[in-house]
Amino acid sequence: MTPSALPGQPHIHYKDSHLHIEDCDLEAMAAQHGTPLFVYSKAAMLAALAAYQRGFAGRDAQICYAMKANSSLAVLQVFARAGCGFDIVSGGELERVLAAGGVPSRIIFSGVGKTRHEMQHALQVGIGCFNVESEAEIEVLNDVALKLGKTAPISIRVNPNVDPKTHPYISTGLKGNKFGIAHERTLATYQHAATLAGLRIVGIDCHIGSQITQEAPYLDAMDRMLDLVTAIEAAGISIHHIDFGGGLGIDYQGDTPPPADTLWAKLLAKLDARGFGQRKLMIEPGRSLVGNAGVCVTEVLFMKPGEQKNFCIVDAAMNDLPRPALYQAYHAIVPLAQSKQGDADSALCDVVGPVCESGDWIGHDRSLNVRAGDHLAVLSAGAYCMSMSSNYNSRPRAAELLVDGSNAHLIRSRDTMADQMRGERLL
Ligand SMILES: *Cc1c(COP(=O)(O)O)cnc(C)c1O
What we know:
Distance between the termini: 61 Å
Strand content: 25-35%
CATH architecture of the largest domain: Alpha-Beta Barrel
Bound molecules: pyridoxal-5'-phosphate
Number of helices: 12
Helix content: 25-40%
CATH superfamily of the largest domain: Alanine racemase
Radius of gyration: 23 Å
CATH class of the largest domain: Alpha Beta
Largest sheet: 9 strands, mixed
Oligomer: single chain
Structural class: alpha/beta
């Protein structure tokens, strides 16, 4: 049988009727490592990165992987080796990047609630830029830097008040969101920051949301940012780089986000038309670099037919795959054995986990022809799954494999109970 790739996921395909990632058979990996099991394709990550790199060919641009999408050390290492910088949102993420070989000068630090301790550490290691999100943070960062005898490189994160047309929990650039400094306050805030001796203004930043599938919000945000750069520079403050954030969506369910290179061809044309084509650019993609590079393999524990609903109870749950419970998100679910794909006659079932919450579902009304002991792959599980996972219900965090051609590297072993209880004390 000829290999058939899954839509939008060329590195994941059926070969001889069995689902493979690159040249590795997922069934064999599940047998060796158990389930639930996350498996990622290194080639898929590098192909996603290459789309951005093609888009920026010949430009002065720095791609900073927004590591909260997937912060496993070996994943960070893949991007560090490919020359990426990193967008971090906590001191813990800083430690991870450094442990994975990331270059401090290519790290940018976003987030509305940085602590003094996190600011100090980031200044000491020499990160490239703090993306400052409030007027109060500016004062504290200035103070921390002065006390250390350093100057903090900053961008102000602008809230451009643009609707990214995505789920409300992942919209970040609207007036009612907690992120960034209001578009109208930005110039005055830059003028104030320029008077503070502990700060050095290097750029301007925005990030309007996540899982964005249209171009228009990006183009609108870019216009607003460039208007601001013009006004800020007219006030005598120079802006070295412009950071357009991340947020590009992926195909979960027939979604059609523009490819990264196509989107950037349009954005760069606008930059050129407005005379900013030579400016240093930064971007902060997360989901679009890793989301469709990974799957979560899970085993069917029980089929439970019911009067109103049929349930397919699997060994992965909301602690492993939190996106459906958090955002009512859709993940495609396919059997590892191609023959078990549902046809029109198979009954619809809800795929659910063992956690004691009705919110613990992975997919509603899926057509599957499976029984206990069969394996399923939950697709598009490379972003915001393992990095959001928890030990709820005292469930161990899953193991992770990174596939490179015909080699599958174990990059995280499954939690033991000793891992879970570490740090706890009986009275
Ligand atoms: C989460 C986040 C990103 C990445 O968003 P994606 O949708 O995963 O691309 C980029 N920048 C900031 C500041 C973020 O918080």
